Amino acid sequence: MKIRVIVNPRAGSGKASAVAGAVAAELTQRGADFDLRETRGPGDAGTQVASAYKDGKTLALLVGGDGTVNEAVQAFVDESGQPVAGPELGLISAGTGGDFPRTFGRSDLETAIERILHRPARRIDHGVLRCRSFDGTERIHAFANIASFGITGLVDRTVNRSPKWIGGRAAFLGGTLVAAAKYRCAPLRVFVDDELWLTGPCYTVAAANGQYFGAGMRIAPDADPSDGLLDFIALTDPRARRMLELLPKVFSGAHIDQPGVQVKRGTQLRAELLRDDDPVYVDSDGENPGTLPFEAWIAPGGIMLRI
């Protein structure tokens, strides 16, 4: 196995740099064949993954957070959203939210390295979305975990402009409360696999490959990243009070059977505004690629993952 360790030094308010040193020490102790590169700016993790593949590396080992994973999976799609070959991916979580690895079970560093080196890679799906970028052009963007729109997109904008030192869960809870005070549900039309699913206002709609977002909210408790499907969850009650009542249940996944929550499974979701309102922001693994209109679809088995 030829490994390139790709470190996002800004992840976790600098935590990733310290973790990278411990990763290098573990790999050296185990006699692994590796080199180490740091990302140089936004989006560079995807470039580094593609470069690692061209350099003959069989594993790109990411040290960072959900944003680093989101950047990395861009290496697996082209400009039109079609699959592109790449190396196996491994992940050492060192970010703010840490939601993507929660679906697979988190472990200490020594155990994580042992699994990455010696467990077989598993084939997983990833998602692809289309939305309107902030410059008004169409944007194609891959996601590993969850893409959503509505209040979740506004929460991301709030959290990403806030200090990360307060911790992931506190940052996302604070961002949710701030966003809830501002957000007004826009009327939408939502289709799943080209059949009408929802019409009307929604607080958020999520297209889930993994189970968690928002630093531990189990929004899609039945999502399986290797089943070739996305789980779609919509919070449809337009009252802010009801959304905040559901919030504690989302952490355990107990919201699924509650009134005002709609669930569906499929391979593609499309959403459009019924009138021109304020922009409805899109979330992709904690990042903000743009606004509605929105389309998301599954890319089955596109990534070989070691975790």
Description:
The structure is a single chain. By secondary structure, the protein is of the alpha+beta class. The chain folds into two domains: 2-125, Probable inorganic polyphosphate/atp-NAD kinase, domain 1 (Rossmann fold, 3-Layer(aba) Sandwich), CATH 3.40.50.10330; 126-301, Tumour Suppressor Smad4 (Sandwich). It contains seven helices and 15 strands. It has a 15-stranded mixed beta sheet that branches. Helix 5 (151-160) packs across helix 6. The chain is globular, with a radius of gyration of 19 Å. The chain starts with a strand and ends with a strand. The mean pLDDT is 91.
Describe the secondary-structure layout.
Blueprint: E1 2-7, H1 15-29, E2 33-38, H2 44-54, E3 59-64, H3 66-73, E4 88-93, H4 109-118, E5 122-132, E6 138-143, E7 146-150, H5 151-160, H6 168-182, E8 187-192, E9 195-201, E10 204-208, E11 230-235, H7 240-252, E12 261-266, E13 268-273, E14 281-284, E15 287-306
